[in-house]
UniProtKB/TrEMBL annotation:
SUPFAM superfamilies in the record: Composite domain of metallo-dependent hydrolases, Metallo-dependent hydrolases
Domain (Amidohydrolase-related) ranges: 76-432
Protein name stated in the entry: Amidohydrolase-related domain-containing protein
InterPro entries for the chain: Amidohydro-rel, Metal-dep_hydrolase_composite, Metal_Hydrolase, Metallo-dep_Hydrolase, OTAase-like
Gene Ontology molecular function terms on file: hydrolase activity, acting on carbon-nitrogen (but not peptide) bonds
Organism of provenance: Coniochaeta pulveracea
């Protein structure tokens, strides 16, 4: 579909743009609203006004003063999508394992790949990324974020974690076999121990440019003792990496500094500890547990179940895999039914950037209503990034919020496949995708 743009060359250059819509998703009420027009400041990238048009009144572009009008009627409009768990420096594990990416790919290669990744994501309608760890590139995500913010490359608005915090020996490339020549594996976390040590680590991360702090509450760290496939039926177990006091201290330190904090946790025990510590978001947490859900509910934790990464890591279609997959989806649905707030984040990078909609599809497959999933992929994404601590509002289309707008042809509630085909993408009032047609 061609999107009509009415230009009036005689008018003085304008900072304001009006967008007419006929089906716009309200991510707070979870309803599609008709006949709304938005006015946008292209200077600030914010929405300055939203008003309802008379039902049958066609907008007269000559009367819409001043300047430029975009007619998005006939399309389904969503706030720009938010992927709440990404890794821009990773590409699909099906191409190269993360270990080999971290160890063998150069800084330059990984940055060039990331440049392609963020462009693909933006054109897929994802205007915000919460990027949770560089996986071996230290603080390069903060610098990368800044290149997007300075307009050097197109990409989503980024909130980054720099390195994740783990206890000593908790999250690192395994070194048991390191020879006398010394380690060649890159550092993949900022190690810290003890309540003072972990506070210092939070301060280091924020100083390095982190918008959000991330720590590993647990990890399957005994990879060499339990090699995958080595001992059939024996799994590399999750090991708790911090004490309750250490987790409490990290959360306190992040919050004192006005930063949100996220925890990687897989075992129910780690989920409970991280939730009780007061983390803003809980990543993964896939093992079915009523106690884990209770803790998240009680503490108002946002749950980011990262269904996509589990989906790509469950190989084959055998009975065991099917059962594991069903259990993960069922646990996510149980969290939703309990009233736990869910944000959509795929652990994107483990699979291709640009395929971010996969997480939305899996949340719907889990049995969560489409409208709630769209809220998880927009407004709840903003909350996962820190809400008002972000310094910008996005994920909802109203006055004072960012003009992040994505448009689709078709009805998302009937055909979710539509989500894979955005025809228009705007971030901060700037159009990145759209077959715009000039007319007088
Ligand atoms: Zn991740």
């Amino acid at each position: 579909m061609r999107i009509r743009r009415a230009m009036e060359p005689a008018q003085p250059p304008s900072d304001s743009l009006t967008i007419h819509t006929s089906t716009l998703f309200d991510s707070k009420s979870k309803r599609f609203l008709p006949n709304l027009s938005l006015t946008i400041s292209t200077k600030t990238g914010l929405i300055t006004k939203v008003h309802t048009r008379e039902e049958h009144a066609l907008p007269n572009h000559n009367l819409t003063s001043p300047g430029t009008v975009l007619d998005l009627r006939g399309l389904t409009i969503l706030p720009g999508l938010v992927d709440a768990h990404t890794h821009i420096f990773l590409h699909p594990y099906s191409e190269t394992s993360s270990l080999h990416q971290m160890r063998d790919e150069s800084l330059v290669e990984r940055v060039v790949r990331a440049t392609n990744h963020v462009k693909a994501a933006l054109l897929a309608g994802y205007t915000t990324y919460r990027d949770l760890g560089t996986e071996g590139l230290r603080d390069a995500d903060a610098n990368f974020r800044d290149t997007i913010n300075r307009g050097l490359i197109p990409g989503p608005r980024m909130f980054v974690a720099t390195e994740c915090i783990a206890s000593s020996g908790g999250y690192e490339t395994r070194l048991e076999n390191t020879g006398p020549g010394g380690a060649t594996a890159p550092r993949i976390s900022d190690p810290a121990d003890g309540v003072y040590g972990v506070r210092a680590a939070v301060r280091r991360r924020l100083c390095a440019g982190a918008d959000v702090v991330k720590f590993y509450a647990d990890y399957r760290k005994r990879a060499l003792r339990f090699p995958s496939g080595g001992w059939p039926g024996v799994r590399n177990p999750n090991v708790l990496l911090f004490t309750q006091e250490e987790m409490d201290a990290m959360v306190d330190e992040a919050h004192r500094s006005g930063a949100p904090i996220a925890a990687h946790a897989q075992s129910p025990e780690a989920v409970v500890m991280a939730a009780n510590a007061g983390v803003d978001t809980l990543e993964h947490g896939h093992l079915p547990s009523e106690e884990a859900l209770e803790a998240m509910k009680k503490n108002g934790t946002i749950f980011v179940p990262t269904l996509s990464v589990f989906d790509v890591s469950l190989p084959g279609g055998d009975e065991g895999t099917r059962r594991a997959r069903k259990a993960i989806l069922g646990h996510t649905k149980a969290a939703f039914d309990k009233g736990i707030k869910i944000a959509a984040g795929g652990d994107t990078g483990a699979f291709a950037h640009g395929d971010n909609a996969k997480e939305v599809e899996l949340l719907v497959e889990a049995g969560i209503p489409v409208e709630d999933v769209l809220q998880a992929a927009t407004l709840h994404g903003w909350e996962a990034c820190g809400g008002d601590r972000c310094g910008r509002r996005f994920g909802y289309l109203a006055e004072g919020w960012a003009a992040d707008i994505v448009a689709f042809e078709g009805d998302l509630t009937r055909d979710l496949g539509v989500l894979r085909r955005p025809v228009f993408v705007m971030k901060d009032g700037k159009v990145y995708k759209g077959d715009l047609e000039d007319s007088a």
